[in-house]
Design a protein that fits this description.
heterodimer, A: 153 residues, alpha+beta, 3 helices, 7 strands, 25% helix, globular, B: 154 residues, Alpha-D-Glucose-1,6-Bisphosphate, Chain A, domain 4, 4 helices
């Protein structure tokens, strides 16, 4: 057994790889489906990456490990605003593969330690974020509950 | 790992629980979002369940285990095609929870026999079928996947 915790999620979205890539990267899109959050990054290998939440806090931070638009992005990713920071850096991969008139999006989030609380936490978050992203790209409307940061969190 | 394999997938849909439950039990709706496959059952506990696959003569059969509209649905799942019939049945459970204007749909597919080949098939199949179900309920349009239809990956 490997001493790893990992989360993998696959979804299919009727869109193009470029539109999906833009939606995953650009603040004007992520704010709509990622609870008002956005990323600060210049999207080059080695660049620092931060996930910002609306009250100005840095939720998570890391750096760009691999980038190949519009196909693949790998980030190092550490939680910054809770004690899950102590678990250190995880690794998050987006893989975008065209599949007829849609794109297969695979999200892999893993950390080199067993039973990580951070991976458990993101396992609860990714399905609703990715569902809302799919709604936004297919219907123009994200899921209502994902348009702002939840109060008290 | 001594644990038996299980597949768990959560998806959020901008729809009502009733709409999701209807889609999970309707032959005509399943034919649209489940790439040509038709659900067949009277949806009473103990009744037969079948998924008639698009490719002629192929089907998945089973028995309805739980029906609690619009919250819960479960059936056994026994693939009869591509030499998979010698494998025993597994179990599919859907749970539907409403949160304001959206639904959280959880599917758990478990109780596979050891060394299950069906488990590999459904790991590839469910994300597509449930993505298509979400598209169908939110936009009226389904996802088309020739590779899935040809492979009969139900």
């Amino acid at each position: 057994m490997s001493e790893k915790s990992s989360f993998v999620y696959v979804t299919y979205i009727r869109t193009t790889p470029q539109k999906l890539w833009d939606a995953l990267i650009k603040p004007e899109f992520t704010r709509q489906f990622w609870f008002g959050a956005w990323q600060e990054c210049d999207w080059k290998i080695g660049s620092s990456w931060r996930l910002m939440i609306p009250d100005g806090r840095v939720a998570d931070a890391g750096e760009v490990l691999e980038i190949d638009p519009p196909r693949r992005l790998v980030l190092s990713w550490r939680n910054e605003f809770t004690d899950m920071r102590e678990e250190g850096f995880s690794r998050m991969t987006y893989l975008l593969e065209p599949a007829s008139e849609m794109v297969k999006l695979t999200v892999m989030h893993e950390i080199d330690r067993p039973k990580a609380r951070f991976i458990e936490a993101v396992s609860g978050g990714w399905p609703i974020i990715l569902a809302s992203l799919k709604s936004l790209l297919e219907t123009g409307q994200s899921l209502e509950s994902t348009r702002r940061w939840p109060e008290g969190k | 790992m001594s644990d038996k394999p299980s597949f768990v997938y959560v998806i959020y849909i901008a729809a009502t629980a009733e709409q999701v439950f209807e889609a999970l039990t309707s032959a005509d709706m399943s034919e649209r979002y489940w790439v040509g496959n038709r659900l067949q059952s009277d949806w009473k506990v103990g009744s037969p369940f079948a998924l008639q696959l698009k490719r002629e003569g192929n089907r998945v059969t089973g028995t309805v285990l739980e029906v609690d509209p619009p919250r819960r649905l479960a059936y056994t799942f026994h693939s009869q095609h591509d030499g998979l019939d010698s494998e025993g049945p597994s179990r599919v459970t859907f749970e539907i929870e409403s949160h304001k204007d959206q639904v959280r749909l959880t599917i758990t597919h478990d109780e596979f026999p050891p060394g299950s080949k069906v488990f590999e098939h459904i790991n590839r199949g469910w994300p597509l079928v449930l993505s298509s179900l979400k598209s169908f309920l939110e936009s009226g349009r389904v996802l088309r996947a020739p590779w899935y239809e040809e492979a009969d990956a139900a």
